[in-house]
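Reproducibility note. Readers wishing to regenerate the assembly model reported in the main text can use the exact inputs given here. Chain order matters: entities are listed in the order in which they were concatenated for prediction.
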Amino acid sequence: MANVIINRVREFLQSYPPFSFLDDQALEVVATSVEIRFFAQHEYLFEQGEPAQDCFFVLKEGEIHLTQSIDGRQEIYEKCDEGDVFGVMALMGRRPYRLNAQAAENSLVYAIPVQIFESILKENNRVALYFAAGFASGQVVVRNDLSKSQHARSILGSPTKDIGLLLFTGQSDVQIKQQVLTCQVGESCHTAALQMAERGVGSIIIVDESKLPLGIITDKDLRNRLVAKKLPYETPVEQIMSSPLTTMKPNANFPDLYLTMVRQKLHHLIFTEDGTAETPVVGIISDHDILLAQGNSPAVLTHGLMNTWEVKEMAKIRNRAERLLKYYLENEVSMDFVSNIISEINDLIIQRAIEISRRELQGKYSEEVKKVKFCFISLGSEGREEQLLRTDLDNALVYEDLDKETEELVRPYLLELTQSVIDILLACGFHPCPAEMMANNSKWCQPLSQWKKYFTDWISNPTEESLIHSAIFFDFRPIYGQKKLSEAMAKHIYQEIEGKSIFLNFLAKNAIMNPAPLGFFRNFVVEKSGEHRDKFDIKMRAMMPLTDIGRLLVLSHKMVDVNNTFKRFEKLAEVEPRNKEIFLEAAKAYEILMRIRAIEGLKSDSTGRYIEPSKLGKLQRQLLKNAFYPIDELQALLRVRFQLDYFKG
Amino acid sequence: MKNWWKKIWEEEITKTAFVQEYENKFRSKTNPDTPISQLTFCVLDTETTGLNVNKDYILSFGALKVKNYQIQLNNLLEIYVEAPLVKSEALSVHEIVNKEGAKELSSFVKQSLSYVGNHIIVGHHIGFDLQMLQKTYKPFGLKKIYNKTVDTLELAVRLEKGYHYNPSFIKSEEYSLDTLCQRYNIPLHDRHTASGDAMLTALLFMKLLKSAENKGITKYSHL
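Running the prediction on these inputs yields the following structure tokens for the assembly.
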């Protein structure tokens, strides 16, 4: 019969990582080896520079401050509360302590002998990761740790795996069919259909004499291109095949190939030896295979969106996408994949809304008017492909320059069109932009020349207002219509910046306005009053600084077509190898922040912007803290690069 | 098996080897100037069938050691004691109390005496536990428990009311283990198990001892 005291200790440890990762047997061993220590207020557990003790600590009750002696003063590095693990130097190579640990109030501490824990550390990967990733209090967060901590969290966060999740984590359960039915060019459609019938498959790959893939024929092709067209069965296969093929390497990871299929709306994906059509076919996968493996999938949702003209149905599908999002987030699917899928769905909804609106206005305007070339652009977070939740809509419309007379006829059409589009989007659950930065606002439904004027004005007169505008309008992305118009806008922006580098200094100054929320370890910088009192504004305090910095640096490098903040940083890492590490860290940090915000938003049915630090789990909180470091480093980098200490904007 | 319980009331008893061993530990006296941080305290609690020292007996015993404000969990003692064979009225009760794994009386005495050794015994309202133990040890040849003792109840009164305050004047409910734990912010867990109460007492004791040290009670002779 187990001792009640040991049981009590075990129960306590069990609820905190890394002990929560132990099995019952190991936990029993650890609990039995614990030494309970009492420290009165102000007493030191250990001091900076002292050799490591043969144990590390878990705070049971009370409060311990980890402090750093700097120039004779003691600065609080971190405050530990119940369940926090600290003093792990003993575990990590027995180096001397680099912090002091002092009881801020009477405290009970569990000391865990290193000897007992070392074997656990060796055998239990999750425990090892916990320490390696710097989750214990007072551990130094060094560069390159973020990806580790993120990786760690994904492993620590979801001990249970069900088969559906494997699809997205790289280990797909979807089998690539390796026996691919082929027939050579020159064969008749009848021969091809016969082979398909014999094998009971819905598709056949057409290859040339050297077995290289040229195209594909599916059941649908036979129906639409042969029988319906009354072509003879002897028609050579190349005449009705779909070509060229999209090919990939068989070892391509699942999210990649899946994304390719979703984006290009492919029904079949062909695998060749080296991924190009210049090598023989080695496998095939169909969207049907994926659907079977997945049930409720993005492919099903996009397919649904492309096949409906009902706004109600679109809203339903968007709600389902939210459930999908939740599922992805909970299961640590890569943020790149998640944001791609959700943006794809959002884009489809906008495109569909425009098409529906155009249909509705069909008979109302003359052909002349409806011919106008325009481009519907998304701004802000949707422009950056980062809008996971249906937060505020930010969008605009640019149309070709017209003579005055034509424009007078066209504008009512475009405004009615955009109004209808916005109405549909609102019906799909998006929220209106409180500042009315939407395409139905006549100010933001303008010809190219006017847009150029706007940008020129913002760039040459960097006022507070124009900086706000730049944060939203510079992250535009074409969604529907003439891409050339948005490209012309981008080109114009770079031309304008060329001569006025002072604008970048203003952007830089703006980007360092919100310092990284470091130094407030137990208590995050929280809102002091109002509705969101005691909550942490993750958007303003952590995400916006990174978004601003990413945009600025991308502009300064004149990079185009990278809108996503974490992709911007990844791109910057390529362009500036010198700062590769910090940029990659920033990319990771941003992904982490996006994820935490989206999870919070889904949980509280809000924008997720305001987070209650006290309600975050221990791992989550530590991960969030770690994500702040790159902000601080980047801001320091901007300060030097744009000479902000001398720049009085 | 000898019925040790019957011997409790007998006069002539031969001293057992482990009692002798226990007594030997007291041959050298503790230096009165030994600082508190170097003393080993044995915090214990017993669960009994009732409050009558003459009629009732020990069912379980929980103990742990505190040294320099540290408690090692691999050095705890918890013993359930076999109830004496009583054929009469209380049989049903005893069936309940005879727990699986309960130890014979002699092995309980041997183990507990060896664990307690010459350490300072600490308990809440320790007088009662001592009487129960003394009675239990008697048939094995032990005349008296020689250990220095600290009663957490008295220590609390001494710290709160002063050294010369007569403990008999206090309201007992104000100094019960429950009330004191609440007063000293010790969450109540596993009450009324010998080990659980010993743990609570130990936590209370460490807090009291620390504040005693701050008031100048720093060595063995001060206790």
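We highlight two features of this model. Confidence is low (pLDDT under 50) at residues 140-145, 157-173 of chain A. The first strand of chain A starts at residue 35 and ends at 39.
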